[in-house]
Fold these 2 entries.
Entry 1:
Amino acid sequence: MVPDHIITSEEEVKKLLSHYSITTEQLPKIFHDDPAVKAIGAEVDDVIRIVRISHTAGRAESYRLVTRRPKK
Amino acid sequence: MPSPKRIGKIEFGLLSPKEIREMSVRKIIWADTYDDDGFPYPQGLMDLNLGVIDPGLRCKTCDQKASECPGHFGHIELAKPVIHVGYTRLIRKLLRVSCRACGRILLSPNEVEKVVGTDDDQTGDQISEKDVKKERICPHCGEQQLKINFEKPTTFSEVLVDDGKKVEHKLTPADIRARLEKIPDSDLVSLGINPAVARPEWTILTVLPVPPVTMRPSIILENGQRSEDDLTHKLVDIIRINQRFKENQDAGAPQLIIEDLWELLQYHVTTYLDNEVAGCPPARHRSGRPLKTLSQRLKGKDGRFRGSLSGKRVNFSSRTVISPDPNISVTEVGVPRAVANEMTIPVRVTSYNIEELKQIARNGPIRPTVNAPCGANYVIRPDNRRLRLGADNLETVADMIEPGWTVERQLRDGDVVLFNRQPSLHRMSIMAHRVKVMEGRTFRLNPAVCPPYNADFDGDEMNMHVPQTEEARAEATILLSVHENILSPRFGGPIIGGIHDHISGIFMLTHGLRHFKKEEILYLLRFTTIEHLPPVTKEENGTEYWTNKQAFSYILPAELNMVFRASSCKNCDTCKKELCERDAYVRIFNGKLESGTIDKKAIGAFDGQIVNRIIRQYGMRRAAEFIDDLTKLSIRAIMLDGFSYGIDDADLSKTEFGQIEDVLNNAVLDVDRRIKIYEDGQLEPMPGRTVEETLEMQIMQVLGKARDQTGQIAGMHLGLGNSAVLMAESGARGSMLNLTQMAGCIGQQSVRGERIVRGYDGRTLPHFRKDDRGADAHGFIKHSYKGGLSPTEFFFHAIGGREGLVDTAVRTSQSGYLQRRMINALQDLKVAYDGTVRTTGGRIIQFQYGEDGTDPTKSAFGEPVDVKGIVESILKEEV
C-alpha cells in the first residue's frame, strides 16, 4: 500500500536541484514524524524519493524534503 | 524563480489604549455632527480633523482636498471600561486559567511543561481551559479559586458558596481589567499570547477609536436632508450615553443608576462592533432596519472580503436572457442590436484605416437595422479627451479624425466576444464566440453549446464580455474559441454535440432505410451549399429517390472510415453486424454511411464518436463545421415527420392492462407469501443480515422485478412509433424506466433506500392495519402516472419525491463549497515549461503534470495513440 520511500544521496539531490533549477525550499515537504520517514530513518533536511505505481503513468517518481513539524 | 517580494511574517495583535490615543488626531466629545449652516462641529463626529467628504473643504490634519485625504482616526474617552465583544471568549479563558488574587496561571511549572512541552519538543500545545481544574487552589499564592460564569453576550460573574448556597457576584469590566493586568508577561506565552503586541487587558476598552469620516460618509438626500451612515448613528449613541454616564458619575449618582448606565454603554459599544451577537437585541434604525455596524461590513458574501476584495466588477460586459437558434453556428452568438450599439471596441486610427473609421464615425451611435454598418459612440483625441458622437456633431467630428486618434467602434458581425454562464465550474464555462447582431432582446446560441455551459432556455441569463485590446482578442481566439473547446479536459471526449431533438431528429432520419423524393432531400439539405445531389438509388414510376443514409452522408467528411455500435445496441451474444434488426451496427465507409443508426453514441454531447474521430482526423474546425451541419440537418429531419407526445401516447390496450394486473397481483401474492414464511419463523436470514432485513430485501426485489415486467409489457406494445420509446432508444432524453412509470407501474417509493416505514405507531397511515408488512402499506404504487394514483399512493409518492428535492438541495450546496475550497487551493498553479506543476513562488507541486505529463484532450482515453482507431480507418473495417 505504502509506496517506496528511499533516501537520496547528496549527489542525486544536487543533480535533482540543478535539473529543475530549484532550491531545496521549493521541493514538496514531508514532516519528520511521518511514519514513512521514521521507517526508513531519514533525518531532517534529507530528500526522499517516492516511487508510486500510477494509473496514468505506470511508474511515477517524486521527491520530498524532510522538514520539522512546526509547533501548533 | 523566487517572487520579488516575500512576506516574512504577519503579526496579529491588539490596539493598546496608548496606540489608540497616539493615532488619534482629535478627541471627540460632542454627539452632534453638523451645525445649522451645515458646517461640522469642532470635536464633533464629523470634525474636520478626521478628514473631509464635502467637496471644497480641506482636511485640518493633512490640508488635502476631499478626494485626496485618506481620513484620520479620532477617539472617545470612555467614562468606564467596557468589554470588546470580539474577545469575550479569550477573556473567559484568561479568567478561568489565572488566579483571582495573584494573576498567575493556575498550574505549577511542571504541569505547564506537561502541556506546552520543552523548547525543543515539537508536540507542544497551548494551555486551554480544560487543562485547569475548576475551583482549585492557586499553586503560587494558595488562594481558593471560584467558578467563573459567562453569560452571553458580555456578562461575567463569580459563584460564591455561602452557607451551602450559591451566590452569583457580577464582575464589572473594571474588575476584569484589573485581573487581566495582573497576569505576568511570562505566563502569557504559554497561553499562546505574545505580550509585546497583545496585553490581555487591552481586550477591555477604555478608549474607543473613532473611524475617519471617509469610511462613514453622510449622504445628502434629494430633499436636501443629510442622512448619516449607520456607524455615525451608533457613535452618536455611544457619545450620548458616555456623556450622561460621566455627568451622573460626577454628580455622585446612586450605584444602581451607575450600573444601569454602564450596562447601556456596554450595549451600545457591543452593537457598534457587532450587531448580530447572540443574546443581544440588534440596534435598529428608526425605520426598524437593523444597523450595519463594523462586523457586518466585513462578514459574509457581500462583506468587505468576499464582496469587495475577492470580488471584482468589470466594464464592457452585458447580460441578458438566452434563447436557442439552431441556424447560427456553434461558434457564433446572437447579440441583440441594443447591446451591440452600446458595447464598443477601441480602434486606433492609422493612415491605412482612416477612411473606414471616418465612415464609422459618420454612421453615428444609432444603428437602425441589424444589417446596417456599425457606428461609433465616442472618439478619443490624442490628449485623451473623449468626444461623444451625437446626431449634431457627426460630420464635424468625423472630419477632425486624424491618425493617432481612437474611435470606439460598435460591435459588428465577426467580432470576438467572451460568453459566460455562472456558475463557472470549468474552463468551458467561458468561451469566445463570434458576434452576430440580431433583432430581439436575447442572446442567441446554438443549442449544441448548451452542455459545456450547462445552460437551458427556461429563463437562464448569460454574460458577454468584449475584449478591448489586440492581445486580449488574440488570446480569446486562440485559447477560448468554441472550436478549441469541443474536447473536454475532464475525459478527453467531445463535450459539444447534439442534444435532445438533434438526437431524436438524426435517429428518425437515419434509422432503417427510407427513400426521399427530390423535394424532400432538397428540403433536408437546403442549408448546405449543395450543387449536385448524390447518385439516385431508386427510380419508381419515373420518380427519383434518394436514401436517408445518403442525406446524412452528405455532411460527413469524405474519406471518413469507422465502425461502431449505436446506443440502441443490445450487446447480443453474436453480433449480426449489417443485418442487425435494430440497425445498431454503424459502418461508415469512405464518408458514406453504409449501415446503422446515428444517435447519441455517434453525435451526442459527452459521447459523440463521430465528432471525436473528426477532431482527431480533420481537426477542431472541421468538427465545429460538422456540428453546425448536424444541428441544421437534424432539426430539418425532425420537422419533416414532426415529433410530439400526448396523453394518449401512453395508452395501452386491454390485453396489456390485463397482463400488467396479473403481474402485479402475482407480485403482491408473492410478497404476502414471503411475509407468511417470515411470520411463521421459517425465513432463513441471508449471511450478515437479520431476518427482518432479509424479508425487506426480498420484498424490494420482488416488487422491483414486477415493475420492470410491467415496463417490458408496455414497451412491447409501444414500438419506435412512440415518441417516448424513440427518445429512450436514441438516448435523446428519458429512459425506459420513465416510460414504465408513465404507462405501466410507478413502483416502490423509498426513503434512504428502504421502503417507507415512518408514520404512526406500527403503521405508515391510518388506512392500514398495525404491523401490516404488505406491499401497498409501505409505499408500493401499482398504478401508473397515466392511470392515476390512489390517495395513499399519492401520499407515499410525495414522501419519496421530497427526499429527492432535499437531496439535490443539499448536494448542490455541499459540492459548491467543496468546489470553492478546491479552487482557492489550486488557483495559481501552472504547468511550467519543464512539465512540472508549480506555484507562483516556483515551488513544485507535481514533478510531471498528472504524473504522466499528458494532456487528456490530446490523448486517446489515456493512451498516447489511438492505435485501434487508426488501424480501423486504414483497413476500413472493424478490427
Entry 2:
Amino acid sequence: MKPLRFLSLLLIALLMLALVACGGTTTTTEEPVEEAAGEVEEAAGEAEEAVEETGEEVAEAGAGLGMEAAAVASEFFSQEELDNSIRLMDVTPEGPEGEPWNQALEPNFIDTTQYAKEGPYTFCFSNAGVNNPWRVVGYNTMEAEVELHPEIEEWIHVDAEGNDEKQIADIQDLVASGNCDILIVSPNTTLALTPAVEAACEVLPVVVFDRGVQTDCPATFVQPIGGYAFGYTGAKFLADNLPAGANVVALRILPGVDVLETRWAAAKQVFEEEDLNVVEVQFGDGNNDKVKTIITDAIQKHGQIDGVWMDAGATAVAAIEAFEDAGAPYPVINGEDQQDFLVKWQEEGLTAIAPTFPTFQWRTAVIAALKVLQGEQVPDPWRLPQPAVTQDNLEQFVQPGMPPLHYAMCGCETMPDFPERWGGTASE
Amino acid sequence: MTQITANTAIEESLGARAWRWVRAVNPVYLIALALLVWVGIRNPVFFQPDNFLTFLQRATPLMILTAGQVFVLVSGGFDLSVGSVVTSTVIIGAILANNDPNATWWVILALLLGGFIVGLVNGAVTTFLKVPSLIATLGMLLIAKGIGLFWSGGAPRGYLPDNFRMWGRGGIEGLFGLQDFPYAVIVLVVFGVGYWLLLHRLNYGRQLLALGDNPRAARLSGVNVNLVRISAFVICSMTAVVAGVLLGGRGGVSIEAGTGLEMQSIAAAVLGGTMLLGGRGSIPAAMTGALALELLFTLLNLMGLPKPLRDAVQGLIIIGAVAYTAYSTRRTR
C-alpha cells in the first residue's frame, strides 16, 4: 500500500508539474496578440536572439545555440521587405481623405468583372478566432461595416477558435454549402490554411486579410504595411528621443510568431544602428503581472532604464506603472493604440508613440469583397496605410468611455451603434 | 531505549549529525533558503528592505492562494478553478467598479460573495453529486472563465479604481522608515497567521485533516464531513477572490491575470509537503513553497534564459524539489 501510494503521488505530481511547465506557453499562445499571425514556427530560433542581446552573462549561457539560432532567425527576416516597409511608411496613400480603410498604398488595380454578380449577396466569413481584444474590436467593426451595406442580405460568420483544423473544416463546409457568394478568410496560420483557400478559390471568389496565405488565387489580399513598420516606428522614436548608450528594455510577447518576429527584427536593427544599449530582451507573455516583474527587476538590476520598446501594447500600462511603483522617472516608451495606454500617455504627459496594426482593416475586407462581387476594380494586394498615434494627434484618439483595451485605430467612430457596440458608453 | 539512541548519536560523525538535522527540517525551507541566497548573489540589491518588500508584494497572491488551496488538498480534493476565479475577479471587478472609487467596497464584497458561491457549488457538486473534485472544479474553471469573458464581451472593459488597486499596488508611506510598506504584505501576514490558526490550532483544522486522511473514520468519530468538506472549497474560492483583488491591483485589468495559477498553487503546496489525496499539510510550509516558486521565477528571469529553456529548467527544478520533498516526508512519516 505504502509504495503504491507513494508512486501514485509522485506520478500525479510529475503530471502536474509537466502541466505547470508547459502551462505557461500553451495558455498564452491562445492570447497571442491580435494580428499575431502566421505560422508559429520553431520557437527556439528567435529566442536565441534575445540571448544575444541581453549581455555577457547570458551570452555565456547560450553562446553555442546563438550560432544555430542566427540561421533560423534569418528565415524570419528579409532586409528587402524591411526596407520596402520603411519606404511605404512615407508613401502617400491613394483614396478618400480621412478614410484610411478606403485608402491603398501604391495600388495595382485588377479587373474583377469575372466575379460580377447581381445582389443581394450572402457573405461568408471564416474567422481565425475572436480570442483576443484586437480581434474583438476588429470583428465588432466588421459587423458594423456589414450593416452599412443593404446589398449584403446574409452574413455567415464561422469562428475557428484559433484552431487550424477547425478552420480548414469551416472553409470546406462553407464552400460545400453552396450558400456563399463570396468567402472572406482571416487565416489562423499561413501554411496550414493555404490548401483550403486554394480549394475554395476554385469554387467562389475569396478575399483574404490580416494574415496571408501562400497563393495568389484569392481575388485580393488586404493587409497593412506590417510588422516591420510597427517595430521600426517604435524603435526609431526611442532612438530619436534618447541619447546613444541609453538603457533600453525590449519587451516581447512570445517567440516564433512571424508578425511579432518582424517587429523585433526591425527594432533590433534600429537599436544596433543607433547605439542604444539594449539591456534586457524579455518575453512577457502579454501578462501584466509578468511585465511588471520584468521591469521592476530591470530597474533594480541596471539602476536606470531610459526607454521601453514593446512588440505589442496590451501590457504597456503595466510597464509604465512599474516605473511609478519603483519611484523611477518615466521612460521613453512605445505602446499601441489601446485606450488605457493613450489615456495614461495623455494624463502623465509621457514621451511616447503608438504604432498600430490598425483594426480598420476588418472594414476593408468587407469593402473589398463587395467591390469584387460588383465587378469594380480593387487593388491587389490592397496595402493599407498603417498610421501611428503621435503626440500631435493623440487627443483625437483618446476616447473617454471606451474600454481599456479598445483599439483606437478602428475607424469606427462614425459607424452605427458607436460606442455601445464596442463596449463603450457615450456619456462622457 | 534512551541509552541506545544516545550511543548511536555519539558514534555519529559531525557531518552525519548535521545531515540528520537537515533531514528533519521540512525540505521546502532549505530549498527556499538556497534560492534566496542564490537570488541574492545574482542581485545584491535584492535584500535591501524596499526591494525585498516589493518582491514579497509580488509573491503575496500566489502565497495566499496556495494557503487556500491547502485546505482543499488536505481534505483530499483539488481545486482547479482558482486561476479562472482570479481572472474573473479582475474582469468582473473592472466592469462593476468602472473606475468609480465609491463603488470599491461593495464591489469587493460582491466579488467575495461570488467566491463564496463558487466554493459552495464546487463543494456541493463534489459532496452530493459525488463528482470527483478534479472534474467538478475543472468544470468550474470553464464556467467561471466563460462567465467573465461573456459578461465583458471577450475583451476587458472598465477600469479598476485606484482605491481598489491600492491593495495590490500601494503601501503605507514611511512605515518603519521604509519608502513604502505594501498593503499586500499586511494581507499576507493576516492570512498567513489566520490560516495557520485555522488549520493547525483549531478544531476545524483537525477535523479537516481527519477527513482527508480517512473520511469514514472521520464520520464515525462525529465530524460533519459534508460541512467540513464544502467549507474547505469555500475557503479556497474566497481566497482566490482575495488573490484576484491583489493581482488586479498590481497589474491592472487583463484576461491573463490568473493564467496558470491553479497549477502553480498546487505545485507550491506539494513543494511544501502537502500530500495530494489528503490528510497531511502545513500552511507555513505550503506558503514557503509558493515563495520558493516565486524565487525560482525571479532567478530564472535574472539569469535571462530564453523562455522555452526557462520553462524546461523550471519544470525540472520543480520535479526535483517535489521528488526530494516526497522522498524525505516518506522517511519521516
